[in-house]
């Protein structure tokens, strides 16, 4: 009975904890400059430099460079490839006609609104 209880404790507690430790080690070894990370304190930043000898990491947090222990990293988001600038230009050109249409709509409404006021002035 005691052996069954120890086996159950191993599979319910110790084994999942070891798997979690292995996943964390893999995540830490795969980190590289340019990856986005979140610290255990909730700060979001981009890896600037990793110092394996000192076990520290330097993060760029919107222009502020902070140094943390490697253990302070809670999550790593891999660097996504930068989208080319051409699609952004296409998005801005698609927005431009929408503003022109609004201007055209305002221009067509304005004379209609002015016409009755001119008729009232003539009376």
UniProtKB/TrEMBL annotation:
It is found in: Cell membrane. The keyword Glycosyltransferase does not apply. Pfam families: YajC. One of its GO terms (cellular component) is plasma membrane. Residues 81-97 have a biased composition (Low complexity). Keywords: Cell membrane, Membrane, Protein transport, Translocation, Transmembrane, Transmembrane helix, Transport. Its main location: membrane. Residues 76-123 are annotated as: Disordered. The keyword Cell membrane applies. It is a single-pass membrane protein. GO terms for biological process: protein transport. InterPro entries: Preprotein_translocase_YajC (IPR003849). Belongs to the YajC family. This is Preprotein translocase subunit YajC. It comes from Loigolactobacillus bifermentans DSM 20003. The lineage of its organism: Bacteria, Bacillati, Bacillota, Bacilli, Lactobacillales.
């Amino acid at each position: 009975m005691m052996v069954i209880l120890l086996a159950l404790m191993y599979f319910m507690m110790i084994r999942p904890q070891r798997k979690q430790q292995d996943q964390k080690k893999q995540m830490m070894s795969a980190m590289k400059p340019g990856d986005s990370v979140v610290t255990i304190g909730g700060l979001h930043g981009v890896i600037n430099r990793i110092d394996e000898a000192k076990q520290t990491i330097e993060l760029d947090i919107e222009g502020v460079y902070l140094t943390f222990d490697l253990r302070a990293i809670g999550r790593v988001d891999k660097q996504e490839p930068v989208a080319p600038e051409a699609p952004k230009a296409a998005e801005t050109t698609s927005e431009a006609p929408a503003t022109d249409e609004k201007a055209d709509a305002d221009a067509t409404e304005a004379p209609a609104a002015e016409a009755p006021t001119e008729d009232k002035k003539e009376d």
